[in-house]
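By convention, each integer encodes one residue's backbone shape. The lines below illustrate.
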Amino acid sequence: MTDYAWRDVTETIKNCFIKEGFSKNKTSSETEEVDSNKHSIGEGEINPEQWASIQKNCNTSISFEDFLDVDNEHQTCSTMTDKEIVVNINAEISDEENEELDQLEYEKATVKEAKKAVELLQSFIESIKNIGTELFGTISTLEKTVQLQKDSARWQTSIKDFFFRN
């Protein structure tokens, strides 16, 4: 969901500018002509006519490049002390350790649980109307994989396999 929202941001911002009148509907020939004069702003663009309109409405004569570079000389965040740097690094290490512990806490699913999960998925897919047959093939492959795992668990090949089996 967040991925969809992130990808939709550019279009949303573009629509806001259009709604506020920064973009005029033009024919395709006019658009192609203006495209050659556009300045790039990350993923977006602005043409000289739009910038002239902004300059007029804001009563300023600053160039577009100067506008983009206006805060390059200013500090946008505070300088961190040594103590703050150490705290941040320790917090990152702690987060990494917590993630590793979280991954270790998950128990591996048993063959019995996997078989129930496959049956549940199969039941769900069967309840969907107008579903393609490719999903049933995938479920069949999963079912065979679980069955093979179940069958291979029945035969002990060495004493080590017995002691190290989950």
Notes: The longest helix spans residues 82-105.
